[in-house]
UniProtKB/TrEMBL annotation, chain A:
It comes from Humisphaera borealis. Gene3D superfamilies: Histidine kinase-like ATPase, C-terminal domain. Coiled coil: none annotated. GO terms for molecular function: ATP binding; protein serine/threonine kinase activity. Pfam families: HATPase_c_2. The keyword Oxidoreductase does not apply. Residues 28-129 form the Histidine kinase/HSP90-like ATPase domain. This is ATP-binding protein. It comes from the Bacteria. Keywords: ATP-binding, Kinase, Nucleotide-binding, Serine/threonine-protein kinase, Transferase. InterPro entries: Anti-sigma-factor_SerPK (IPR050267), HATPase_C_sf (IPR036890), HATPase_dom (IPR003594).
TrEMBL record, chain B:
Pfam families: STAS. InterPro entries: STAS_dom (IPR002645), STAS_dom_sf (IPR036513). This is STAS domain-containing protein. Signal peptide: none annotated. One of its GO terms (molecular function) is anti-sigma factor antagonist activity. It comes from Humisphaera borealis. Residues 27-118 form the STAS domain.
Length: 133, 119
């Protein structure tokens, strides 16, 4: 199992390096193409959510990312320094009245692709797990 | 210089503007903004724009890219135009299905089918 810990500013270019490192581990762990696609999109959405919606792009706030990657198993936590949120209050982006809204689909995608997704610390920390090679 | 390569490659098929993406990822903020600005310019060129977006090269896209496409679609409709999405790879198509945006956009399997669907 490869474990990595990152602590980055609320900056999209910094998140790009994190994603590259984790995706290298994912490829090395032997996940199939379908799961690699699922992990790439989930990682992107999770970190962007932390920067944009969690830390509200505040450059003084940090995002902590921990990843544990092994054959058939990936666990990632993404923690921001924002006010937190309640998953139950996030509108369903697939509802007819929300279909034309340009945002709000990140969580839906993560939950669709991951085996399990949960929120801790009042919604500031997201934990996602993918099982299966 | 890599950043001098335009994000879009545009050609004409009769009165339809056919757009291809030069990058296989539509993820980065800057990249998404450049694509959105480029597409909006194409929409604004004509009174009733007809636009076909060919996704043949696209391997990855984010929810922010979907948001940009929704805004372009809105702008096309405001001008009584038509937008088609074509050649979407199965994994990317699944993203449209999960988000139910396959109901919002007119998606065709091939570019030829997309072109023949314009009225």
């Amino acid at each position: 199992m490869v474990k990595r810990v990152f602590d980055i500013p609320s900056d999209f270019s910094a998140s790009r390096d994190v994603q590259t490192h984790i995706m290298d581990d994912v490829v090395a762990a032997g996940f199939d193409e379908e799961r690699i696609f699922a992990i790439r999109i989930s990682l992107e959405e999770a970190i962007v959510n932390a920067i944009r919606h969690g830390n509200r792009m505040d450059a003084s706030k940090r995002v902590k990312i921990e990843a544990a990657t092994g054959p058939g198993y990936l666990e990632v936590t993404v923690e921001d320094e924002g006010p937190g949120f309640d998953r139950k209050n996030v509108p369903d982006p697939t509802a007819a009245e929300n279909l034309c809204r340009p945002s709000g689909r990140g969580i839906l995608l993560i939950e669709s692709y991951m085996t399990s997704v949960g929120w801790e610390a009042g919604g500031r920390r997201m934990r996602m797990i993918l099982q299966g090679a | 210089m890599a950043d001098s390569i335009p994000a879009l490659a545009v050609s004409d098929q009769k009165d339809v503007r056919v757009v291809e993406f030069t990058n296989n990822k539509i993820l980065d903020e800057a990249n998404i903004k450049e694509i959105g600005d480029g597409l909006n310019s194409l929409v604004d060129e004509r009174t009733h724009p007809k636009l076909l977006l060919d996704f043949a090269t696209v391997d990855h896209l984010s929810s922010a890219a979907l948001g940009m496409l929704i805004n372009v679609n809105k702008r096309v409709k405001e001008r009584n135009g038509q937008l088609r999405l074509a050649n979407i790879k199965p994994q990317i198509l699944e993203v449209f299905v999960i988000t139910k945006l396959n109901k919002l956009f007119r998606i065709t399997p091939t570019r030829a089918e997309g072109l023949s669907s314009f009225t």
